[in-house]
């Protein structure tokens, strides 16, 4: 019988084949998913309906086989099968689905909490067959149907046919889908290709998926032309030969050799074997108390398919609420290989998305980019798997899953950090109490290394990038950040510990950035902080500068760069400091005014330092709204920064002079006062000294010298004066005498 497709089916088929699926290979995933649905449906219904059980029951399984000569691929299941009416309704209407109707019927019957699970919409999933087929043949038999029926349609046709299977009842029950492959789909006639696809997408389907593989081999055969009479004659001859005493042993050997020299007859035999493709079990569906650490680690390596070391820790949880899903998240102990090939922003996520144990994709961004190193799986029962199967990224349910996963991932890292710190502390403080009550510290035990700190050294850029980009979770991420300080002797500590160690009057977190620890430790800005016994955080990563600009404060304490201009300490007499500042500004006004006119645009302004500069005569600090020297260095190294941006950053420098330094006092003497005539100018020696002070202050502040050539000329002048040279004229060229050519030494080999 011939039937017409529903009016919109042809249009839908065109969408399915040309637009819906990005990769043709997903047809196998769809058909396996539908087969799993049919198996689950039979298993559930057979529990309540005895009529569905056949006398010769068969195992619930999915079989895949291919035929190279016929160019066909067959997917067969032993599930519920379909009646004639169901074939017409389910396969003739894209919008209708046996699976969706079954779920609706269960809900109406009050079985919404049943453990039976179906995947997707059968109609659309089935039509993905035409991605690779010219013709599709479906043979199906329902347990209550006496005959086996066939549904068949050609790719692009507007109708389909249903008829009794001329082969008879080859199926006890279930459905067999045969794809007559197109010429450009011959890759799906290869056992290795099919195995790879089935294991990739459907590795954790509950029911066995078996692939029939074909192999040929040569075996030895007996001579079929030898009849019984010849065998009897040979037996008689053998008896006579045994009775013949005259035959020598040598003749016996010759006869034996002749028999052995007869060529063996071989024939080619074709064998078929069924290989189970999904032997791995979905451990995330099990109770975590029943899973050993070894099983968790094995599953981690199964997800990665590489030689990565064991996972550092993991989290196995069931998320419940508006959206329910199961998940296992792994924290790797080393950077994934992909991290060696690109920036964090270019790395794809490593969390696989499953729906009822069927892989939907491993390229979904289920976690933010900064957490792309986390491995794992997510299995949801609630994602829609019809026409949106390839465009789930914008699904509202998926967005909820992403939010919950991010929170769980951060909780995983936080718990790991806490347990590692507690374990290290416990090891350091481990002691044995003797009988008299005294505490005896073990001397043979080395301090235990904090496992989180070892892990953090590899993944700190990710955490810091998260602080910058993920504002909703910024508070959690800041608690995961670790830094060295001027008091930790190389040890990394959390910001909370820094705050615990702060002075009672201290209300700021002091930081200093640099290219390396050695460079930071030599910074003259630290001199005053060492005198006041203040702890300073060392920031050696380029991303730290951006982090401080985005965060501004932690736990109510503002971040302050010690190289910035307005550093004030609450332990000083505020009234006294104001009076001193006012007096110094008045005293050095001529000097600051003249220096600003001399330095021009190289600095924003010249002022008397409002803080102690220690032994430095002057220093260039960053203004409150400008870039630090370290930030300017980073910007200069980045090729994408424009000249305008660089000029803006370079111009925001403040030149601070130390009013107590003798060099500044001496320089002041050579500068005209406000009462002097404007035409009076300092001598050249004073100008050179001022520029030397400028260059010294720039270097003290961590900035490069603005005019190295002029700096070199001034240094040469200083050296000339130091050595008492009247002139720097070059000495005349020497005229050495002509030397006679020496004869070549004789060659001893001649």
TrEMBL record:
GO MF, one annotated term: unfolded protein binding
Which residues does ATP bind?
30, 34, 77, 82, 90, 97-98, 121-126, 175, 389
Query: Which SUPFAM superfamilies does the record cross-reference, listed alphabetically?
Result: ATPase domain of HSP90 chaperone/DNA topoisomerase II/histidine kinase, HSP90 C-terminal domain, Ribosomal protein S5 domain 2-like
Q: Which UniProt keywords apply?
A: ATP-binding, Chaperone, Nucleotide-binding
Biased region (Acidic residues) positions are 219-242, 249-260, 732-750
Q: Where is this region: Disordered?
A: 215-269, 728-750
Q: Does the keyword Nucleotide-binding apply?
A: yes
Keyword Chaperone annotated: yes
In what residue span(s) does the Histidine kinase/HSP90-like ATPase domain sit?
Answer: 23-185
Q: Where does the source fall among the domains of life?
A: Eukaryota
**Similarity remark:** Belongs to the heat shock protein 90 family.
Under NCBIfam families, the record lists: PRK05218.1
Q: Which PANTHER family match?
A: HEAT SHOCK PROTEIN 90 FAMILY MEMBER
- Protein name, as recorded: Histidine kinase/HSP90-like ATPase domain-containing protein
Organism lineage reads as:
Eukaryota, Sar, Stramenopiles, Ochrophyta, Bacillariophyta
